[in-house]
Amino acid sequence: MYEVFFVADEKDIKSGNLTDVYFKRCIEVLKKKGVKKHVRCEVRASRFPEAWNWAVLAGIEEVKELFKGKDIDIESMKEGTVFKSEEPVMTISGKYVDFGEYETALLGMLCQASGIATKAARCRIAAGERGIYSFGARRMHPAIAPMIERSAFIGGCDGVAVTISAELIGEKPVGTMPHSLILMMDSPEKAYEAFDDIMPKEIKRVALVDTFEDEKFGALTAAETLKGRLFAVRLDTPASRRGDFLKIIEEVRWELDLRGFNDVKIFVSGGLDEYRVLEYNPYVDAYGIGTSISSAPVIDLSLDIVEVEGESLSKRGKMSGVKKVYRCEKCSNDCIVPTKKEVGRCECGGGWKQLLAPLIKKGDIARKTESPQAIREYVIRQLMELELCLD
Ligand code: PCP
To answer: Of 8, 373, 377, whose CA–CA distance to 160 is shortest?
Structure first.
């Protein structure tokens, strides 16, 4: 249990101690009544937040560690798989008393990570080839920053800001300069020169230009101070001063180009989401996106029993029986069928690919760990192949 910060540690989570008490009571009753029934359960979302009509599955690596060594079988979609509502993303088979208490931790790992990965993927679609960076760890509890930023990265962000998160995913942390540097160094010019003087060459010189003066004059000050060493200017204009922000960014672009600083890129941060990104794309080269990704709405995944002792059985509102989820390799249509039902070919003539595959067999890991980079590529490939859109 926690020492100083109100966070559960890995031992609590792994031991099933982090659970809603009614699961503990249920298991106690079943064990004392000798009920050791074999069940099959499925994890799926019946609807998505906002206007989302697809989501990205994340959190599978942690779930693998959670159930490693437990006498159960798990099948799941690969981490990073784009899925639709009603599609089972995971099935768990075993004696209910052996895993019932883990529902809280299991869903917590999948619901939040998948929400963050999906929001990042939506920003990825909106930004096209432009850079998007996860700058939102400061809006959430630091204990989960690595999970947040790993999910943002596999969802499609090009980089993350927090040192430990970058270490976890095997990337270099990304950042520019904070307003505090400008405030500490008496003037923007002195701050830019000090940054340029101290920072190793591989650190891109991105000058923050909205601390004291109008952005266009701030951008020119930065360009004239660092000349060819300036990679980009960052606009993090406070909301009270944003007005027609697209117009301000356009003006910065115009004034830089007019004076030959055509190579200086424009980086924007503060209050961004996929819709703001779409709006600012005409003049922006990269985005720092914080709150909207790190505090993304969760994907409301639930775990439901669909079979007891081999008999299809589920509560009202849930389709009983174990299912398979297929995706057509030609037209990317999906279909959900009862597990025993044979599927021919898709009406488009394409063959079907199964999306659920073994993850854990009798407690043994049945799937190799993929790098965050490989999962991210898999996500971006699907965003293109499935021609996913934002609404
Ligand atoms: C914040 C910081 C983050 C931005 C905003 C995330 O700027 O730079 O990148 O914003 P969001 O959560 O609204 O998306 P400040 O804290 O204003 O400034 P500084 O860069 O000086 O830390």
So the answer is: 373
The angle at the Cα of 123, spanning 119 to 129, to the nearest 5 degrees, equals: 145
The span from the CA of 39 to the CA of 163, in Å, is 43
pLDDT at 387: 85
The residue whose CA is least distant from atom 3 of ligand 1 is 135
State mean pLDDT over 130-143.
Answer: 98
Going from the C-alpha of 385 to that of each of 92, 192, 332, the distances in angstroms are: 29, 43, 8
Backbone φ, ψ for residue 73 (5° rounding): -115, 140
Q: Probe ligand 1: pick from 236, 267, 295, max atoms within 8 Å of CB?
A: 236
Kindly tell me the burial class for residue 200, based on how many C-beta atoms sit within 10 Å of its own C-beta (0-12, 13-18, 19 or more): exposed
Q: Are 188 and 207 in contact (CB under 8 A)?
A: yes
**With a 6 A CB cut-off, is 178 part of the ligand 1 pocket?**
yes
Q: What pLDDT, on a 0 to 100 scale, did the predictor assign at position 227?
A: 92
Alpha-carbon distance 210 to 183, whole Å?
12
Share of the chain above pLDDT 90, in %: 96
Among 134, 135, 181, 183, name the best residue to mutate to test ligand 1's pocket (greatest count of ligand atoms within 8 A of Cβ): 135
Nearest-angstrom CA–CA distance, 254 and 376: 35
Name the CA dihedral angle for 93, 96, 99, 100, rounded to a multiple of 10 degrees: 130
Q: Look at residue 364 and tell me whether its pLDDT is greater than 80.
A: yes
CB-CB contact of 96 with 30 (8 Å): yes
Tell me which residue of 58, 74, 69 sits closest to 154, measured CA to CA.
58
Q: How far is the CA of 178 from the centre of ligand 1 (A)?
A: 8
Measured from the Cα of 289, ligand 1's closest atom is 14
Residue 1's pLDDT band (boundaries 50, 70, 90)?
A: low
Q: 75 with 356: CB under 8 angstroms? A: yes
Atom of ligand 1 nearest to the CA of 139: 12
Tokens coding 197: 């003087």
Distance between Cα 236 and ligand 1 center (Å): 7
CA atoms within 13 A on the CB side of 371: 8
Res 3: pLDDT: 78
